[in-house]
Amino acid sequence: MNQLIQIFLKVLDMSVVASIVILVVLAARLLLRKAPKIFSYVLWAVVLLRLLLPVTIPSPVSAIPAVSPVGHSQINDVLPDFEFETPSDRIQNQQALEQMEQSNGVVVTVSRSAEPTAYLTILWLAGMGIILLGSIISYLKIRRRLKVVIPLRENILIADDIQSPFVVGFVRPKIYLPSNLSEKERAYIILHEQYHIRRFDHIVKLLAFLALCLHWFNPLVWLAFSLASKDMEMSCDEAVVRKMGSGIRADYAASLLTLATGRRIIAGTPLAFGEGDPSGRIRNLSKWKKPAIWVMVIAVVLCAVLTVCLLTDPTDEDANNGMIWYSGTIVDSGMGDAIQADAEERAYITLQCGDENLTIWFSEGTEALEGVIGEYWVVRSMIDPDTGLHTMMSMYAPQPKHLTSLKEAIHQGILDHNDSRSHEGLCQTASFKELARDGNRNTVTVYGLAYHCVYALENGILREESGSHIPVALTFYITDSGEYVLTEYWQPRDGAYYADDIRAKFPLLVWPDTQAHIDNQIKECYAQAAAYFGVKTISSSAMANGFEIKLYADQDTYTTDDEIKIWATLEYQGAGDTITIWHGDPYLTFSLSDGGDFNSGGLVHDILTSTTLQKGEVYRFEYAKSGGYSVNDSDADFWESFYQDPQLHLPAGTYTVSVNGLFYLSPDQLPEEKGPSCQLQITITE
């Protein structure tokens, strides 16, 4: 599904650019109204290529403005939020919305659904399916009407049950003519249809139909399809008149008038298209005359220029709205007059780029930089067209790490952004879940969820020191040698700004559901820390009713002499700041089982009490033996030694370790309001 979503978003981007091209072609058609229709028809081919080809060709003469991908703020401002809900999700989401209204804050709903963009992707696919189905039905109707035909010659056939001529087929197209045409009318129409085939219009028509299916949601594409079809027909009419002489115009127009009452076969059928708009074609023939040389010259030049300008995209500099990228070494920094007219003082840096020095001013702020001399920086700046000043928009401190893998560059970018001296001696880990991507030849921006966690090792056990999980957008400049250099690390502001910031930055309806991927990202970071410290700690986790429970063992394989260390954590992540639970004592219990005779289950005192837990606080529970045995049990001696041993040792075998949240969210102890449970397996060898 993710691939389909990315294809849909790409189609949206292509549709926006194609819409600009369509508007330019519509204006050009007005300028070319005295020129042969073949020129207008050629310009529609540019639109067709824009609708079908996802590749771009940069050019300094491109007439296409630097358009941001559809998923940015201008689209998010007008589109509502979409989200799939299951019945249980709907209850949770309604509670979250009520909390948001009361606190005027931001809530990210917990959902098991796909990203909201999938909603529009499914709608897009459904629209294409309807159009294709209609085309198939239309084509089958035509084939039924062609059961009885009379061959005339070569690929030309005559049928009684049709009122208008048309072409059927793609690889070997055939011309079908109504039986009521006179010999003279038939000659004109055959010449017209043969010109269609010789010019490969039947292939162009198929490609145009595919473009219409892909972009069916764009009304400008429907308009372009209609006008291009008319220009196609009129250009063929003009070709017939040029070949047979202007003296046939009256007879040719009369034959078109004969067909004017016929129904068009063009609707929705890519492999069969007929002669539509006879009245418009008659008017065009009545006004036709051999064009002047100057008209032809202007038309050729205009079409050539527009083809180059509309088929190419802005260069990287133009696409970045005047942004220019530099890299080098800081050789000076301080204060100076940025603009002499108002003597405004701003901080500046002098960047050594090869053999030249470039002074760049800060866009805001007046404090001089400290401690940057001699360090390598990458700077994004904008040239003021009036003053020629290079104004710095952003600057980045880390030394180039020569990363040629985008995955590695993202990982390193998260680590660098969250790095601090307080992390020395600890293990930093990072995980990234990509949700969308856009860019051009020299830049790429990835949107997703970044999880950063710092671990410490105490007594052989990994402990989380700090962590963050937040939507981010990382932009990289791709050097000529293929290295990725981080140029922007974006993340939303807290509080009431959170949702608005994400909508303004992230692509169309790609809402980052932080709960959908957190479990896998935690496990990934935990594995990184375990590898870093050389420990074999294993873990398992589960979510229920806003609680996350995690179960840990310090390794997955032990000997019978090893001490086994097991612990669990519980964290409330729901909507409120606190929550009250009802339980016995304790409210988190462990159990061990080998699936056979060994079964040590936790005991809970039958006391109904309540405890208030704080949101975001992690409550840790060490494994404690709990249970009993009968003195008449054949294994009583074993169980006595097992419970008397202050450490946990187990006989050889494979064991399932379970932790259970034995609490409820109300004193009524409703089963659906129970705490979470999870398991993991350990192996004991001799």
Shape, principal axes of CA atoms: elongated
Largest sheet: 6 strands, mixed
Count every beta strand, where a strand is a DSSP E run of 2 or more residues.
24
Structural class: alpha+beta
What is the CA-atom radius of gyration, in angstroms?
A: 36 Å
- Mean of the pLDDT scores? 78
Strand content: 25-35%
The figure for the number of domains is 4
End-to-end Cα distance? 48 Å
Low-confidence stretches: 70-115, 262-268, 317-322
Helix proportion range: 25-40%
State the helix count. 16
Description:
With 686 residues, this protein is an alpha+beta fold. It folds into 4 domains: 270 residues, no CATH class; 78 residues, Nucleic acid-binding proteins (OB fold (Dihydrolipoamide Acetyltransferase, E2P)), CATH 2.40.50; 107 residues, Nuclear Transport Factor 2, Chain: A (Roll); 150 residues, Immunoglobulin-like (Sandwich). 36% of the residues lie in helices and 29% in strands. A hairpin with a 5-residue loop joins strand 3 and strand 4. The longest helix has 30 residues.
Write the layout of secondary structure elements.
Elements lengths: L1 H30 L5 H16 L20 H4 L10 H17 L13 H29 L3 E5 L2 E4 L6 E3 L5 E5 L4 H16 L2 H14 L4 H26 L4 H11 L12 E3 L3 H10 L5 H19 L4 H4 L3 E17 L4 E10 L2 E7 L13 E8 L6 E7 L9 H13 L8 E13 L3 E16 L2 E18 L5 E7 L6 H9 L8 H20 L4 E7 L2 E7 L3 E3 L6 E7 L5 E16 L5 E2 L4 E10 L3 E5 L13 H9 L8 E12 L12 E9 L1
Parallel strand pairs: 2-4, 8-10, 17-24
Antiparallel strand pairs: 1-2, 3-4, 3-5, 6-7, 6-9, 7-8, 9-10, 11-12, 12-13, 13-14, 15-16, 16-18, 18-22, 19-20, 19-21, 19-23, 23-24
Helix pairs in contact: 1-2, 1-5, 2-7, 2-8, 2-11, 6-8, 6-9, 7-8, 8-10, 9-10
